[in-house]
Each structure stands twice: as structure tokens, then as C-alpha cells.
Design brief:
The chain is mainly alpha-helical. The protein contains 12 helices and 4 strands; from the N terminus they run αααααββαααβααβαα. The longest helix is centred in the last third of the chain and has 26 residues, at 222-247. It is elongated, with a radius of gyration of 24 Å.
């Protein structure tokens, strides 16, 4: 399956899209750590306030996710391997043995049905080569982002915060390329957890990439938005045309309405 970009935004448009959805993005990403805070609670914490009943650890997770998103949104330069380490240093600041450092010890991931997956200890040189090779490939922004995200998740390249770091690194690529946002909705996490567990076991990425392409990419179709706006303006012009014809005792047939609509459109263009 060829994974072309679903959306075509400018970088600035994509940044604004991320800013507008910041709370929901943080809210979803916090579920990687098992947080149960509500969306309003997440917003309150992002606003810098405390919430009764939410632990300091959970508050720290949300605050660092907010800072991680702000980092990738505001950074004007493309993603690099070192920037991935900076992302991890932010989001895993209070969790990792060594935030921002490539893992040099063993790790284990709990999968569905209490199974476990033990990734190899990553080789930083090889991981950097993989990253640079992927970024140079002639494939879509969306394909690069998802491939990097799932590779980093499975390889567990950092001590902690790998899903959060991989998701933000992938979204940095998406934002810079104007391809929308990668964010699997919470109501689809049951299926996603099944697929990610299968991917960890088999190292076959295509199935989860195809599913994510269908279910986990969010954006705005600006062409569709413009078409909707144009249709609304046309309907409004037809209402004005009929009203004018009736008030001036002209026949409200299709031909007269069309001529009147054209005159209204010309008058509006001239007024602009």
C-alpha cells in the first residue's frame, strides 16, 4: 500500500493545527503512561494549575508532554537524530534513568495477554544511520513519520518514554511537511494495542502502518473547506436573487435567478 500524504498544509498551518489541538494531543499521549486524567483536568494542568486527586507524577507527565509538543511546534529546523534525544529528555525528564540518552542496558515491554517482548540493546551508530537513511528516502512525509515512530517504539531506543518520544518525533516530521497530525483516537486504542503487540512480536510493520494510515491521521482538507464555503455563498446569493426578483415583480425562473446570481457575484468581487 502506497502511503501518500492525506493532507497538504503549509508548515505554519500545521503548527496552528497542533496548537489548536494541544490539550487533546497531550491528553491522548498521556495514556501511554496509563494516566486516567480527564480532558478538562488535562487542560487545567496545561494552564499551570493543580488538580485535586491527581498525583504529582501524573502532573509532571502532562507538563512535560506539553513542553515536548511546544518544542516540536516551535522549532523551525527539520528533525535530526539529536533532536529526537532532546525530545526524550523533555518528555521522560522525571521517568528515565538517563533522559535523552540512548539505552545501554536491558529493557522489557509487557504486551497483550501478559506476554513480554525484550528488545535488543540499541547501537547508537546504527540507529543514527537508520534515521538518516529513512529521512533521505523518496517516500511521503506520512510514510517517513509512521515508519520512524513504529521503529523507535519497537526498538525502545531510550531508557523510558519511548512511545511518547516516538510519537512526538513523528509529529515533528508531519508538522514540518504539512501532512497533518499522527494521533490514534482513544476509542480505537483497543485495536491499536492489539496491532502494536503483534508488531513487537513479529517485526512486521506494514499492518499497523496501514491501519494507522486509515485511523490515526488527523488534519484539515482546506480544498474541501473552501468548496463548502463557496457552496454556502452560492446558496446565499440565490436567496438574495429570488428576493430581489420577487420584490421587483420579475419571474423567479431558473434563467433569471442564474443571471441575478452572476450579477451579485460580480458586484461582490468589485466591492473587494
Amino acid at each position: 500500500m502506497i502511503l501518500q500524504n492525506k493532507y497538504s498544509l503549509t508548515t505554519d498551518q500545521n503548527r496552528r493545527l497542533a496548537i489548536q489541538n494541544l490539550t487533546r494531543l497531550v491528553y491522548t499521549n498521556s495514556r501511554f503512561e496509563g494516566l486516567t486524567t480527564t480532558l478538562p483536568q488535562t487542560q487545567t494542568i496545561i494552564d499551570g494549575l493543580g488538580v485535586d486527586g491527581v498525583s504529582i507524577d501524573d502532573i509532571n507527565t502532562i507538563v512535560q508532554l506539553k513542553r515536548g509538543w511546544q518544542y516540536i511546534i516551535n522549532d523551525p529546523e527539520p528533525l535530526t537524530f539529536n533532536k529526537m534525544k532532546s525530545i526524550n529528555k523533555i518528555v521522560a525528564l522525571h521517568d528515565a534513568l538517563e533522559p535523552g540518552a540512548i539505552r545501554t542496558g536491558s529493557s522489557q515491554v509487557v504486551l497483550a495477554a501478559d506476554a513480554t517482548y525484550t528488545p535488543e540493546i540499541p547501537d547508537e551508530t546504527k540507529e543514527k544511520e537508520y534515521f538518516e537513511d529513512l529521512m533521505s528516502k523518496d517516500i511521503s512525509t506520512t510514510d517517513k513519520a509512521m515508519t520512524l515512530m513504529y521503529h523507535n517504539m519497537r526498538n525502545q531506543i531510550f531508557w523510558d518514554g519511548n512511545k511518547r518520544s516516538a510519537t512526538l518525533a513523528a509529529n515533528k516530521i508531519m508538522i514540518d511537511g504539512g501532512a497533518g497530525l499522527l494521533n490514534v483516537p482513544l476509542d480505537k486504542w483497543g485495536k491499536w494495542n492489539e496491532l502494536i503487540s503483534d508488531y513487537y512480536r513479529t517485526n512486521k510493520m506494514e499492518r499497523i502502518k496501514d491501519w494507522t494510515y486509515q485511523n490515526g491521521i488527523q488534519g484539515i482538507d482546506l480544498d474541501q473547506k473552501q468548496r463548502t464555503q463557496n457552496n454556502a455563498e452560492e446558496q446565499l446569493n440565490r436567496v438574495y436573487a429570488k428576493k430581489f426578483l420577487k420584490e421587483n415583480h420579475f419571474a423567479t425562473n431558473k434563467s433569471n435567478i442564474s443571471k441575478m446570481v452572476k450579477n451579485i457575484e460580480i458586484d461582490r468581487k468589485n466591492a473587494k
